[in-house]
Amino acid sequence: MNILVFVKRVPDTESRIRIQHETRTIVEDGLNFVVSPYDEYAVEEALRLRESKGGTVRVVSVGRAEAVAVLRKSLAMGADEAFLVKDDAPESYDGLRTARIIARAVERRFAGADLLLFGKQSVGADNSQVPAMVAELLGLPQATVVTKLEVGDGAATAFREIEGGTEKVALTLPAVVTAQKGLNEPRYETLKGIMAAKKKDIPVVTLTDLGLGPDDLAGRVTVTGLDVPAARQAGKVLQGDPAETARELVRLLRAEAKVI
C-alpha cells in the first residue's frame, strides 16, 4: 500500500500559552512543540498497515522550516519518507487554505496514494476541517474520527464511535481517514530509529513548485481577537436546611448560571 500521513507541528498541550495581543498570535518563545497527538495515531496506523500488507509510508507536513522536527519524529517511528511542504505564513486558522495546499500537493507530488491518513484534528487550531476539505477537493470518500480500520483489496471498512453505538462505514480506495484516540497505541521511537532519522534527507516542496500563488491561497478567515480562556470562578457550597438549599440552588441555576 502507498500511504500518505499528514502531521502538524503544534505547541505541547502542557505548555503555558501566552498571547501577543497586538498581532493576535501566540508567543512562541520558550514553547515546546510536538507532533499533534491525534496525528501520532495516524502515523501508527499507517505503520501497522505497512507491516501487515507491505508498501510505503510517506509523511507530509505543511508549515515553516521548524516542522522538520515533527517529520523526523515520524521517521524515527518508522516512516519510510518525509516531505515538508514549506509554507512560511503564520497560523491563520484557515482550514481551507491548508486543505488547498495539501490537495494540490497530493495531485502534483504524491499521486497514486491508496490511503490518506490524518489525525481527527490538530490541537493547535482544533477546527477539525482540513481532512474533510481535502477529501472534498480531491473527490475522495472519507471517514472521520475512526477508532477501528480494516483495509482490504481496493476497499476499507471504518468504525466510528457515535452517541449510543458504533457506525460502520464502507469505503472504496483511495480514501481519506482521520484517526481518533483508541484507534491504536502509538509506538515510541527507538534509538536506532532516531539515529537513522537524523541522517535521512527531507525534501522541501515550495508553494511555487505546486503552482500556488497568492490568488489561490487568499484567506477567508480573519482573526479579530485571540485570548486565553477566562479563569474559572470558585464554586459555591450550599449548606443548611435541605429544602432551603434546594430552593437556593434552583435560584442560582436560573439567575446566575442561566441554565434553567
Explain briefly what this protein structure is:
This protein is α/β, with parallel strands linked by helices and about 260 residues long.
Description:
The chain has 260 residues and is α/β, with parallel strands linked by helices. It has two domains: 2-206, Rossmann fold (3-Layer(aba) Sandwich); 230-260, no CATH class. The protein has six helices and 13 strands. It has a nine-stranded mixed beta sheet, with helices on both faces. Strands 2-5 form a two-stranded antiparallel sheet. The protein has a two-stranded antiparallel sheet with strand order 3-4. Strand 9 (142-151) and strand 10 form a beta hairpin. The longest helix is centred in the N-terminal third of the chain and has 17 residues, at 37-53.
Fraction in beta strands:
25-35%
Overall pLDDT: 92
CATH C-level label of the largest domain: Alpha Beta
> Rounded to an integer, what's the Rg over CA atoms?
22 Å
Distance between the termini: 54 Å
Strand order of the largest sheet: 11-10-9-12-8-1-6-7-13
| Low-pLDDT regions | none
Would you count the extended β strands for me?
13
Tally of structural domains: 2
How many helices does DSSP assign? 6
CATH superfamily of the largest domain: HUPs
How helical, in percent, are the residues?
Answer: 25-40%
| String of helices and strands | EEEEEHEHEHEHEEEEHEH
Q: Under the CATH scheme, which architecture of the largest domain would be assigned? A: 3-Layer(aba) Sandwich
Look at the helices and sheets and give the structural class. Answer: alpha/beta
CATH topology of the largest domain: Rossmann fold
Describe the global form.
Answer: globular
Note the main sheet. Answer: 9 strands, mixed
